[in-house]
């Protein structure tokens, strides 16, 4: 009986310490719906994010005070519309504004870092944003968000750079973003050395209509203890040229 009570107590602790984290990654095309050239619909992007109800969100192609999107700080505005904390990471300066990536989260951000990614071949500068997040069960996870370059040499160097960072994390690191690479490409194969990719429920995310390319990802660092609860491409073809990708991950 004593052993039964002990194992029951141990099981209860494991159940209570596990937490489901809802994750979303979304390339928003600076909130310009492809079917409406020149139109900016930040409200439609926020509606998609709110409908998914994710805990942590990685957003790519975000304008901050850029004339083409009405000189609006899209990072701040999306945080307001989704009632989340945020961290913006600039990739490039653009028309007296900034263009880059964004992390949103419902949880408290306890740390934030930005890295310029390596660029062996001249191209548009890319960055990596990482935030540390305190979950309600007292545990910490980190979310890394990026938008890899189009050129193969750069993507490979950038994947290696990200892999080198993983060893410094003792808690789970979730990597999301538009990686501009197919599942069988060298950059993804490199990342799979340090991250786990969902190969069962994955699917194409680009373009938004007649979708055929899988280039957006949610990956979990090894050797994190977790399981995929859900993993799916979100049906939202209007707001952007990419479809959002969501996951529910049980962190053990």
UniProtKB/TrEMBL annotation:
SUPFAM superfamilies: DNase I-like. Residues 24-242 form the Endonuclease/exonuclease/phosphatase domain. The keyword Ribonucleoprotein does not apply. Keywords: Endonuclease, Exonuclease, Hydrolase, Nuclease, Signal. Pfam families: Exo_endo_phos. GO terms for cellular component: membrane. Residues 1-17 form the signal peptide. GO terms for biological process: GPI anchor biosynthetic process. GO terms for molecular function: endonuclease activity; exonuclease activity. The keyword Hydrolase applies. This is Metal-dependent hydrolase, endonuclease/exonuclease/phosphatase family. It comes from Sphingobacterium nematocida. The lineage of its organism: Bacteria, Pseudomonadati, Bacteroidota, Sphingobacteriia, Sphingobacteriales.
């Amino acid at each position: 009986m004593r052993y039964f009570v002990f194992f029951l107590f141990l099981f209860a602790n494991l159940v209570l310490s596990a937490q489901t984290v809802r994750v979303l990654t979304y390339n928003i095309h600076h909130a310009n719906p492809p079917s409406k050239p020149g139109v900016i619909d930040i409200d439609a992007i926020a509606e998609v994010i709110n409908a998914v109800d994710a805990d942590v969100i990685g957003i790519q192609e975000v304008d901050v005070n850029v004339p083409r999107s009405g000189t609006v700080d899209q990072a701040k505005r999306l945080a307001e519309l989704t009632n989340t904390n945020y961290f913006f990471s600039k990739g490039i300066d653009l028309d007296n504004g900034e263009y880059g990536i964004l992390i949103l989260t419902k949880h408290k951000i306890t740390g934030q870092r930005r890295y310029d990614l390596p660029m062996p071949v001249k191209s548009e500068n890319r960055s990596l944003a990482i935030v540390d997040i305190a979950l309600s069960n007292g545990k910490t996870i980190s979310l890394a968000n990026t938008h890899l370059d189009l050129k193969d040499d750069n993507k490979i160097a950038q994947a290696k750079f990200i892999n080198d960072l993983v060893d410094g994390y003792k808690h789970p690191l979730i990597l999301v973003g538009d990686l501009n690479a197919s599942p069988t490409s060298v950059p993804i194969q490199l990342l799979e050395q340090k991250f786990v990719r969902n190969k069962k429920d994955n699917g194409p995310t680009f373009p938004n209509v007649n979708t055929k390319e899988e280039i957006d990802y949610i990956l979990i660092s090894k050797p994190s203890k977790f399981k995929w609860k859900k993993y799916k491409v979100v049906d939202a073809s209007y707001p952007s040229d990419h479809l959002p990708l969501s996951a529910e991950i049980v962190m053990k």
